[in-house]
């Protein structure tokens, strides 16, 4: 059965963006980008919260239509649009670019996706990750820790994960950034 994995690039102190919504500190260099390309190719489905959907979809869909010649980003864009993508939102009424909008019962929708796909479900967005943790549906997480202190902003981990134990299953360096991958302990 598919695992549900929260993924993201984070600051050294655990934030995905600063207080102004900036995440420039986590823009991956080519070697790290190639890792994310591999993850997208292996993923059975991408599940996003609304804000990540509004950031990722227009950018990567347009990039797939108009490749830049940079192999690592062109490859990611192609893999992204070929992967089944879903958005969970309480405010969106429709979704574009072939993305499926999930219904209001998040637990039932995620279990449906798990039964329909081969491979893991890669989750993007801390609010969505927290909601999945509250439902007991989060099986693991992967984060790339970047050497930058944000101090305040949007944290990667939500309160539903407080007090939970996780087992380290992979660690890997990409220049000055470090991948940490965990599963339920």
Name of the CATH homologous superfamily: Dihydrofolate Reductase, subunit A
Biggest pleated sheet: 8 strands, mixed
Low-confidence stretches: none
Indicate the percent of residues in helices. Answer: 25-40%
Strand tally:
10
Q: What's the mean pLDDT score?
A: 94
CATH architecture: 3-Layer(aba) Sandwich
Order of helices and strands: EEHEHHEEHEHEEEE
Summarize the structure in short.
The model has no long low-confidence stretch (mean pLDDT 94). It is globular, with a radius of gyration of 16 Å.
Please provide a written account of the structure.
This protein is an alpha/beta fold and 185 residues long. It has a single domain (4-184), classed as Dihydrofolate Reductase, subunit A (3-Layer(aba) Sandwich). It is built from five helices and ten strands. The chain has helices at 30-42, 50-65, 71-82, 106-116, 126-134; strands spanning 4-11, 15-18, 45-49, 85-88, 100-101, 121-124, 140-146, 153-155, 166-174, 177-184. The strands form two sheets. It has an eight-stranded mixed β-sheet, with helices on both faces. Strand 9 (166-174) and strand 10 (177-184) form a beta hairpin. Helix 1 runs parallel beside helix 3 (71-82) and helix 2 (50-65) crosses helix 3 (71-82).
């Amino acid at each position: 059965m598919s695992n549900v994995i929260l993924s993201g690039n984070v600051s050294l102190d655990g934030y995905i963006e600063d207080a102004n919504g900036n995440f420039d500190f986590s823009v991956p260099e080519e070697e790290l980008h190639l890792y994310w390309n591999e993850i997208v190719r292996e993923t059975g489905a991408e599940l996003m919260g609304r804000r990540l959907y509004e950031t990722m979809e227009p950018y990567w869909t347009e990039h797939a239509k108009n490749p830049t010649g940079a192999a690592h980003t062109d490859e990611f864009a192609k893999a992204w649009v070929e992967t089944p993508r879903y958005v969970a939102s309480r405010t969106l009424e429709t979704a574009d670019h072939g993305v499926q909008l999930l219904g209001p019962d998040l637990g039932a929708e995620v279990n449906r996706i798990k039964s329909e796909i081969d491979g893991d479900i890669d989750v993007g967005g801390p609010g969505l990750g927290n909601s999945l943790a509250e439902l007991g549906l989060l099986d693991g997480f992967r984060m790339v820790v970047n050497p930058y202190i944000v101090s305040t902003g949007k944290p990667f981990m939500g309160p539903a994960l407080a007090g939970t134990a996780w087992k380290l299953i992979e660690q890997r360096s990409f220049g000055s950034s470090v991948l940490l991958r965990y599963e339920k302990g």
